[in-house]
Design brief:
There is one protein chain. With 136 residues, the chain is α+β, with helices and mostly antiparallel strands. It has a single domain, classed as Bit1 (3-Layer(aba) Sandwich). 35% of the residues lie in helices and 26% in strands. The protein has 4 helices and 7 strands. The strands form 2 sheets. Strands 5-6-1-4-7 form a 5-stranded mixed β-sheet, sandwiched between helices. Strands 2-3 form a two-stranded antiparallel sheet. The relative contact order is 0.27. It comes from Allokutzneria oryzae. Pfam families: DUF2000. InterPro entries: DUF2000 (IPR018988), Pep_tRNA_hydro_II_dom_sf (IPR023476).
Length: 136
């Protein structure tokens, strides 16, 4: 029997709406590329038009304050989950190379996280994110 997995995104609750959407989009792209097993088959409509594949499982989005994000990130690291991160500094960059440099310049403990995404077993994801509220 296959292990049941889950994708979850945690976004800092005090961000502007456009920032929350941007962070969520970037983080889920990290899960899709880093965990290709999460992506289903391409779509096709009745007219034969083909569409890109999407995740084959649900994505749950949580909102949290900065400290709760930091705490959940620490738990996710301890559970060896696949993780994508987005730091506040990435709002000021304009390309992937600069984004990676911004993250690389800071230790794990000092990351100024505005969000992160995880993929792993449902049990491990649930334990890492226990106590967080679903985004409204």
């Amino acid at each position: 029997m296959a292990v049941r997995t889950k994708i979850a995104v945690v976004v800092r609750e005090d961000l502007a709406v456009w920032q929350k959407l941007n962070v969520t989009a970037f983080l889920t792209s990290g899960v899709a590329s880093g965990c290709p097993e999460t992506v289903g088959e391409p779509y096709e409509d009745a007219s034969g038009v083909k569409y890109l594949p999407m995740f084959g499982l649900p994505v749950v989005v949580y909102a949290a304050d900065a400290q709760a994000i930091k705490d959940a990130h620490t738990k996710a690291l301890a559970k060896d989950l696949s993780i994508a991160v987005y730091t506040e500094e990435l709002f000021a960059t304009g390309n992937d190379e600069d984004n990676r440099a911004q993250v690389r310049a800071v230790s794990t403990e000092e990351l100024n996280l505005v969000g992160f995404a995880v993929h792993g077993s449902r049990n491990a994801v649930d334990k890492a994110l226990k106590g967080l509220s679903l985004h409204r």
